[in-house]
Amino acid sequence: MPIRTLVWGENVHEQKNKVVADNYPEGMHNQIARLLAKDSNISVKTTTLQAPEHGCTEEALAETDVLVWWGHAAHGEVKDEIVERVAKHVWQGMGLIVLHSGHFSKIFKRLMGSPCALSWREAGERERLWVVNPGHPIAKGLPAYFELEMEEMYGEPFSVPEPLETVFVSWFQGGEVFRSGLTYRRGTGNIFYFRPGHETYPTYHDETVGQVLRNAVTWAHNPNRFASITDAPNVPVDKAIEKIEERGPRLHQHGEAGFR
Amino acid sequence: MPIRTLVWGENVHEQKNKVVADNYPEGMHNQIARLLAKDSNISVKTTTLQAPEHGCTEEALAETDVLVWWGHAAHGEVKDEIVERVAKHVWQGMGLIVLHSGHFSKIFKRLMGSPCALSWREAGERERLWVVNPGHPIAKGLPAYFELEMEEMYGEPFSVPEPLETVFVSWFQGGEVFRSGLTYRRGTGNIFYFRPGHETYPTYHDETVGQVLRNAVTWAHNPNRFASITDAPNVPVDKAIEKIEERGPRLHQHGEAGFR
Amino acid sequence: MPIRTLVWGENVHEQKNKVVADNYPEGMHNQIARLLAKDSNISVKTTTLQAPEHGCTEEALAETDVLVWWGHAAHGEVKDEIVERVAKHVWQGMGLIVLHSGHFSKIFKRLMGSPCALSWREAGERERLWVVNPGHPIAKGLPAYFELEMEEMYGEPFSVPEPLETVFVSWFQGGEVFRSGLTYRRGTGNIFYFRPGHETYPTYHDETVGQVLRNAVTWAHNPNRFASITDAPNVPVDKAIEKIEERGPRLHQHGEAGFR
Amino acid sequence: MPIRTLVWGENVHEQKNKVVADNYPEGMHNQIARLLAKDSNISVKTTTLQAPEHGCTEEALAETDVLVWWGHAAHGEVKDEIVERVAKHVWQGMGLIVLHSGHFSKIFKRLMGSPCALSWREAGERERLWVVNPGHPIAKGLPAYFELEMEEMYGEPFSVPEPLETVFVSWFQGGEVFRSGLTYRRGTGNIFYFRPGHETYPTYHDETVGQVLRNAVTWAHNPNRFASITDAPNVPVDKAIEKIEERGPRLHQHGEAGFR
Known about the structure:
The structure is a homotetramer. The first copy, chain A, has helices spanning 13-16, 18-23, 28-37, 58-62, 80-91, 106-112, 207-220; strands spanning 3-9, 42-48, 66-70, 95-99, 119-131, 145-155, 165-172, 177-186, 189-194. By secondary structure, the first copy, chain A, is of the alpha/beta class. The first copy, chain A, has a domain at 3-113 and 180-220: 3-Layer(aba) Sandwich (Rossmann fold). In chain A, strands 2-1-3-4-9-8-7-5-6 form a nine-stranded mixed beta sheet. In chain A, β8 and β9 form a beta hairpin. In chain A, α3 (28-37) crosses α7 (207-220) and α5 packs across α6 (106-112). Chain A is elongated and about 70 Å long. Chains in contact: A-B, A-C, A-D, B-C, B-D, C-D. At the A-B interface, α6, β5, β6 and β8 of A face α6, β5, β6 and β8 of B.
């Protein structure tokens, strides 16, 4: 069964900015979806900020194996309740690919627990992404490096937690570097942050970027869901695996839930 | 200069529950403070949930190198605004030691970005903590293992992110195991989670527990603060380290702040 | 195409010790192979210490996607030259699953760069393996824990490097714990250490152990080989991606190889 | 008590190459020692390849808290027996700082278990080291980045294990990037790899490089030694912490050592 992927696009600059609209006449989300659909093991849907519940209903997320998130101008408009819902699905096993300016999305900051800040410059400069971890599944089939002739610069320090693994590091023409491909797990969900994708440049028309995204979706896919990952079950004394006798005082009545 | 440590105690069960009050007649926070004060390189203050702003004013946190957090029954009463303030101070370099039931505190969940759930049993059973990382500073001077004759059981899976390093793993009489000492960094702040400390048992009267706490405070201490860790500065094109020419279209006016 | 797996068995105690021979009349390697072959995506061969070049010829390894290694009494008889060859194949992308007493095999110590020591007791005691990382591919389909009624005890500290991820932690009846499932990457090869498997007990007749092994082979499989991972190529100045002028003195003549 | 540091210099190019000799008239090891000695908490000795046992006698290492290693042309002349001795001391808690071309030293490859390869170019180009982990002790007091106007280029992929933490990432004028500051632990010994230091350039006359080295020595210092880290003790059944009965067959006689 193909990996059920949902591409979430903010869809704001495409409507307001002629450069972005010319670049992505059907919206960034639809162009990202096109890149993913080149892999027959990936089935793709798209949705946007403007859809009811931002397109992230319980039903939609329950049918999503991997969510791909692009946002920038309207991070603040994403409702907190929806962010919590997406986080819960990630914890339960849904994969999440966060793109570019999504470093400041509510969902990424929620899952990282850190500022996720960086320095930046919008000058259409050259970015060169080096594969530092060639054996990682997300680097499958890639050359030693690939270039994006015009990109926004993001500079270190990128205030995210130390990742499970670093896959890409970027060189920028103006003198900066950036850890451009980072993996995490939160609960049972796999998370990949991928740096490129400024909306005024043709990044999502680049074939190597497409391959990274397809690899990332394949890597992030967890075939199982773990609905119980947020539970904190009490194990009754008489159900202990090894027989024990209850001793000493206790706070809780038998069968009572713990404090949260 | 000694490490300025602030012990935060919820101070609820000490007031309501005779067993806890007998165990910790001056409050758990004051007993934890006593353990820390045995190290002359640590200076200790205490505060509680009931203090104005839960004792976590900007002034108090600015003068704190390491915050030690014990809470249980009243996680929900800690104001979100204070949680955000504490998180900001951690990101800027304040150390944080989270104890026992603090796994479900708002501040720990905020910084982990994961459910932080586990299974539990309150039966006064034996816990044995094994040092799995004897070279880690938090294990300094400890024996191969130490025992707490009566403790609450916490069982895996503990839904936290993969740590920087695992320092302790617990064996429980009833058959479970638990990763009992885990290190993290968020922003520039060091975080240590330490499992033992159920309020109905005399855990914070144990000398080895005291040594772990003193080691943890010493390890978590970062002598610098990084107020800029949450900034996302724009680097103007003409200030690029390597000279570049601006190319292509842009979204932002010069000097404009980025989107958040 | 199925994952080409080679099970390497030391095949010493099966020949000398009646208990082991009765337990594994066709040799441990063949019983491990039988567990793997239940997955139609895995094709299995076996070999032993006694085969020419220990069955690890260049040709055999070139046709192996994942090597599974069980050894104990005869670690010292494995030729250093073969160990180096296996290490090279791992670096180039061959997966490696190291079982039980293989913690002291030359190949595991070679790839870890650490003592790989532990404490042990042979008493036929109960081991209970807890899944601490339920979202990891190696834990796919497993229950919260599984038990082996009779196993050898291995105790911490296990002097291996901090792993990429910890998948299992064991509880032992006699009071110890052990990190029983650990992942690593060396070069482009994935490595998994899995603790159970003492030869006098029926561990490789256990169906859950079989599932772990099949999951591990699937996880460790890297479809690509990276023959260049051990190269240290000189990049000539006139081939620099960004044009630079050579400056200052130099040690090396153009085109010369570096020092090793 | 100050941190007892031993700087090991290969001392080959200083004797053969006029540029290097002019750069470091007293040898690179003595110039590195001078940088370290600016910290009054560090006491420094030096030794070289040419000393008996390469200056790494049991006595010398027993009195060394942190060993700093610079080698290049003569990696192959370091005796395997001395490499094993140094590795043992690292496992037991001696810190190790490996510099520049030391990525291919026997001791670094021994401890990493991986190829430790990279691409390189000797063109006197500009290197800019970015601090990606500003809260790490090795980055203490450093600016956001620092530059070395003339350095040898090292390019990714650097085939080392995923580190505990990445502290520096380098930008090179010719278009490459490199993870230039990486931390590891092997056994109980802390290891830091630091990239700069080509012998034909004045790198060890740079004050920021000196600060990094002093920070690294301070970080790597483990005040304890763990002589038992390589032991694999048998725990007799009657000494089990929790009382157990021996069951089933066994391979080993009571009190017998395990296989290695």
